[in-house]
Protein backbone atom coordinates (compact mmCIF):
# COMPACT_ATOMS: atom_id res chain seq x y z
CA UNK A 1 0.00 0.00 0.00
CA UNK A 2 1.45 3.37 -1.02
CA UNK A 3 0.87 6.67 0.79
CA UNK A 4 0.43 10.24 -0.34
CA UNK A 5 2.34 12.57 1.99
CA UNK A 6 2.94 16.31 1.99
CA UNK A 7 3.54 19.27 4.30
CA UNK A 8 0.33 21.35 4.19
CA UNK A 9 1.99 24.49 5.63
CA UNK A 10 4.60 24.65 2.87
CA UNK A 11 3.46 22.44 -0.03
CA UNK A 12 0.36 22.54 -2.26
CA UNK A 13 -2.36 19.95 -1.79
CA UNK A 14 -1.81 17.15 -4.35
CA UNK A 15 -5.49 16.13 -4.24
CA UNK A 16 -8.34 17.88 -6.06
CA UNK A 17 -10.08 18.56 -2.72
CA UNK A 18 -8.55 19.14 0.70
CA UNK A 19 -8.77 16.04 2.92
CA UNK A 20 -8.20 17.98 6.16
CA UNK A 21 -11.80 18.66 7.22
CA UNK A 22 -12.90 15.37 5.66
CA UNK A 23 -10.51 13.56 8.01
CA UNK A 24 -11.49 15.24 11.29
CA UNK A 25 -14.96 13.73 11.34
CA UNK A 26 -17.68 13.55 12.43
CA UNK A 27 -17.81 17.07 13.87
CA UNK A 28 -20.76 18.02 16.10
CA UNK A 29 -22.64 21.07 14.92
CA UNK A 30 -22.86 24.20 17.03
CA UNK A 31 -26.24 25.57 15.94
CA UNK A 32 -25.90 28.84 17.82
CA UNK A 33 -28.49 31.52 18.39
CA UNK A 34 -27.67 34.98 19.72
CA UNK A 35 -28.76 38.61 19.76
CA UNK A 36 -26.85 41.85 19.45
CA UNK A 37 -27.07 44.78 21.83
CA UNK A 38 -30.16 46.07 20.04
CA UNK A 39 -31.95 42.73 20.35
CA UNK A 40 -31.56 41.74 16.69
CA UNK A 41 -31.71 37.96 16.43
CA UNK A 42 -29.24 35.63 14.74
CA UNK A 43 -28.78 31.88 14.30
CA UNK A 44 -26.02 30.03 12.44
CA UNK A 45 -24.33 26.60 12.39
CA UNK A 46 -20.67 26.10 13.27
CA UNK A 47 -18.91 22.79 12.62
CA UNK A 48 -15.92 23.62 14.82
CA UNK A 49 -17.79 23.21 18.11
CA UNK A 50 -17.07 21.04 21.15
CA UNK A 51 -17.38 20.61 24.90
CA UNK A 52 -14.25 21.52 26.87
CA UNK A 53 -14.89 20.07 30.33
CA UNK A 54 -17.77 18.91 32.50
CA UNK A 55 -16.91 20.33 35.94
CA UNK A 56 -18.15 22.97 35.41
CA UNK A 57 -19.63 22.32 31.95
CA UNK A 58 -17.88 24.49 29.38
CA UNK A 59 -18.03 24.66 25.58
CA UNK A 60 -16.11 26.25 22.75
CA UNK A 61 -16.60 27.12 19.11
CA UNK A 62 -14.26 28.42 16.46
CA UNK A 63 -15.45 30.92 13.86
CA UNK A 64 -13.43 31.78 10.77
CA UNK A 65 -13.53 35.36 9.58
CA UNK A 66 -15.12 36.26 6.26
CA UNK A 67 -12.75 36.70 3.29
CA UNK A 68 -13.00 40.48 3.71
CA UNK A 69 -11.90 40.24 7.36
CA UNK A 70 -15.28 40.73 9.01
CA UNK A 71 -15.89 38.68 12.15
CA UNK A 72 -18.92 36.41 12.48
CA UNK A 73 -22.11 37.83 14.00
CA UNK A 74 -22.30 35.10 16.64
CA UNK A 75 -18.88 36.09 17.99
CA UNK A 76 -19.72 39.79 18.03
CA UNK A 77 -23.06 39.13 19.71
CA UNK A 78 -21.59 36.85 22.38
CA UNK A 79 -18.93 39.42 23.20
CA UNK A 80 -21.48 42.25 23.32
CA UNK A 81 -24.27 40.60 25.34
CA UNK A 82 -22.36 37.88 27.18
CA UNK A 83 -24.66 35.05 26.06
CA UNK A 84 -25.53 32.63 23.26
CA UNK A 85 -27.57 29.40 22.99
CA UNK A 86 -26.60 26.04 21.52
CA UNK A 87 -29.50 24.20 19.84
CA UNK A 88 -28.91 20.50 19.05
CA UNK A 89 -29.05 19.95 15.29
CA UNK A 90 -31.07 16.86 14.36
CA UNK A 91 -31.95 15.03 11.17
CA UNK A 92 -35.52 16.33 11.34
CA UNK A 93 -34.15 19.89 11.51
CA UNK A 94 -31.46 19.45 8.85
CA UNK A 95 -33.06 21.74 6.25
CA UNK A 96 -33.50 24.53 8.79
CA UNK A 97 -29.89 24.15 9.92
CA UNK A 98 -28.77 24.43 6.30
CA UNK A 99 -30.93 27.49 5.62
CA UNK A 100 -29.49 29.24 8.66
CA UNK A 101 -26.00 28.98 7.14
CA UNK A 102 -26.82 31.62 4.51
CA UNK A 103 -24.62 34.72 4.67
CA UNK A 104 -26.71 37.81 5.39
CA UNK A 105 -25.82 41.42 6.09
CA UNK A 106 -25.04 42.20 9.73
CA UNK A 107 -28.28 42.74 11.63
CA UNK A 108 -30.44 40.72 9.23
CA UNK A 109 -32.08 37.73 10.87
CA UNK A 110 -31.88 34.15 9.63
CA UNK A 111 -34.89 33.43 11.83
CA UNK A 112 -37.15 35.15 9.28
CA UNK A 113 -36.27 32.39 6.77
CA UNK A 114 -36.74 29.39 9.05
CA UNK A 115 -39.82 27.24 9.63
CA UNK A 116 -39.24 26.70 13.35
CA UNK A 117 -40.88 27.85 16.56
CA UNK A 118 -39.13 30.34 18.80
CA UNK A 119 -38.95 30.13 22.56
CA UNK A 120 -36.75 32.33 24.69
CA UNK A 121 -33.85 31.59 27.00
CA UNK A 122 -34.07 32.20 30.74
CA UNK A 123 -30.83 34.11 31.28
CA UNK A 124 -30.98 36.53 28.36
CA UNK A 125 -33.69 37.17 25.78
CA UNK A 126 -32.20 34.96 23.08
CA UNK A 127 -34.47 32.88 20.82
CA UNK A 128 -34.10 29.10 20.97
CA UNK A 129 -35.39 26.47 18.52
CA UNK A 130 -38.34 24.88 20.31
CA UNK A 131 -38.18 21.79 18.06
CA UNK A 132 -34.56 21.13 19.06
CA UNK A 133 -34.60 18.51 21.84
CA UNK A 134 -31.56 19.81 23.77
CA UNK A 135 -30.48 23.39 24.35
CA UNK A 136 -27.61 24.95 26.33
CA UNK A 137 -27.69 28.54 27.55
CA UNK A 138 -24.05 29.60 27.39
CA UNK A 139 -22.42 32.54 29.19
CA UNK A 140 -19.52 34.06 27.29
CA UNK A 141 -16.13 33.68 28.98
CA UNK A 142 -13.35 34.70 26.59
CA UNK A 143 -12.19 34.90 22.96
CA UNK A 144 -8.83 33.72 21.69
CA UNK A 145 -7.96 35.31 18.34
CA UNK A 146 -5.70 33.08 16.27
CA UNK A 147 -4.22 34.52 13.06
CA UNK A 148 -4.17 32.37 9.94
CA UNK A 149 -2.40 32.67 6.61
CA UNK A 150 -5.33 34.67 5.24
CA UNK A 151 -8.25 36.71 6.52
CA UNK A 152 -10.61 33.75 6.15
CA UNK A 153 -8.06 31.51 7.87
CA UNK A 154 -8.03 33.73 10.96
CA UNK A 155 -10.30 32.48 13.74
CA UNK A 156 -12.08 33.56 16.89
CA UNK A 157 -12.08 30.72 19.42
CA UNK A 158 -14.90 31.45 21.87
CA UNK A 159 -15.14 29.77 25.29
CA UNK A 160 -18.31 29.80 27.40
CA UNK A 161 -19.82 28.34 30.56
CA UNK A 162 -23.05 26.32 30.24
CA UNK A 163 -25.43 27.91 32.74
CA UNK A 164 -28.79 26.31 31.87
CA UNK A 165 -29.64 23.04 30.08
CA UNK A 166 -33.07 22.34 28.54
CA UNK A 167 -34.07 18.79 27.50
CA UNK A 168 -37.33 17.60 25.95
CA UNK A 169 -38.53 14.80 28.25
CA UNK A 170 -39.61 12.74 25.24
CA UNK A 171 -35.95 12.03 24.35
CA UNK A 172 -35.00 10.70 27.81
CA UNK A 173 -35.08 6.89 28.01
CA UNK A 174 -36.16 4.71 30.94
CA UNK A 175 -32.62 4.71 32.34
CA UNK A 176 -32.50 8.50 32.46
CA UNK A 177 -30.16 8.79 29.48
CA UNK A 178 -30.58 10.68 26.24
CA UNK A 179 -32.06 8.44 23.55
CA UNK A 180 -29.58 9.40 20.86
CA UNK A 181 -31.07 7.01 18.29
CA UNK A 182 -34.41 8.76 18.74
CA UNK A 183 -32.86 12.21 18.57
CA UNK A 184 -30.77 11.43 15.47
CA UNK A 185 -28.25 14.26 15.77
CA UNK A 186 -26.46 15.27 12.60
CA UNK A 187 -22.75 16.02 12.27
CA UNK A 188 -20.53 17.67 9.70
CA UNK A 189 -18.28 15.63 7.44
CA UNK A 190 -16.01 16.92 4.68
CA UNK A 191 -16.97 18.57 1.39
CA UNK A 192 -20.78 19.10 1.26
CA UNK A 193 -21.43 15.98 3.34
CA UNK A 194 -23.18 15.40 6.66
CA UNK A 195 -23.89 12.26 8.65
CA UNK A 196 -26.59 11.22 11.12
CA UNK A 197 -26.36 9.00 14.21
CA UNK A 198 -28.39 5.85 13.55
CA UNK A 199 -26.17 3.30 15.29
CA UNK A 200 -24.20 3.10 18.52
CA UNK A 201 -22.10 0.57 20.39
CA UNK A 202 -20.76 0.41 23.94
CA UNK A 203 -17.21 -0.26 25.14
CA UNK A 204 -15.90 -0.16 28.71
CA UNK A 205 -12.26 0.46 29.57
CA UNK A 206 -10.71 -2.75 30.96
CA UNK A 207 -9.61 -2.48 34.57
CA UNK A 208 -11.24 0.91 35.22
CA UNK A 209 -12.31 1.58 38.81
CA UNK A 210 -15.72 2.78 40.02
CA UNK A 211 -14.75 6.45 39.91
CA UNK A 212 -13.43 6.18 36.35
CA UNK A 213 -16.52 4.30 35.20
CA UNK A 214 -18.79 6.88 36.83
CA UNK A 215 -16.92 9.67 35.06
CA UNK A 216 -17.02 7.97 31.67
CA UNK A 217 -20.72 7.17 31.97
CA UNK A 218 -21.57 10.60 33.32
CA UNK A 219 -23.13 9.38 36.56
CA UNK A 220 -24.62 12.23 38.57
UniProtKB/TrEMBL annotation:
Top-rank EC class of the record's enzyme: oxidoreductase
Keywords: Oxidoreductase
Sequence intervals crossing the membrane: none
EC number(s) reported in the record: 1.5.1.-
Membrane keyword on record: no
Domain Flavin reductase like: 22-180
Gene Ontology MF term list: FMN binding; oxidoreductase activity, acting on the CH-NH group of donors, NAD or NADP as acceptor
Keyword Oxidoreductase applies: yes
InterPro entries reported for this sequence: Flavin_Rdtase-like_dom, Split_barrel_FMN-bd
Superkingdom of origin organism: Bacteria
Protein name (record): Flavin reductase family protein
Amino acid sequence: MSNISWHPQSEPNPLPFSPFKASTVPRPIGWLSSVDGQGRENIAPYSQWQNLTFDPPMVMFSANQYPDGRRKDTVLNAEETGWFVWNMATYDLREEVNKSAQVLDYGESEWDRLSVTKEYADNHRIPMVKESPVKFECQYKTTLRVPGNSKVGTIDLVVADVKTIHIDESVIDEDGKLDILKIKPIARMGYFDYTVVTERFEMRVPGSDDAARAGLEGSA
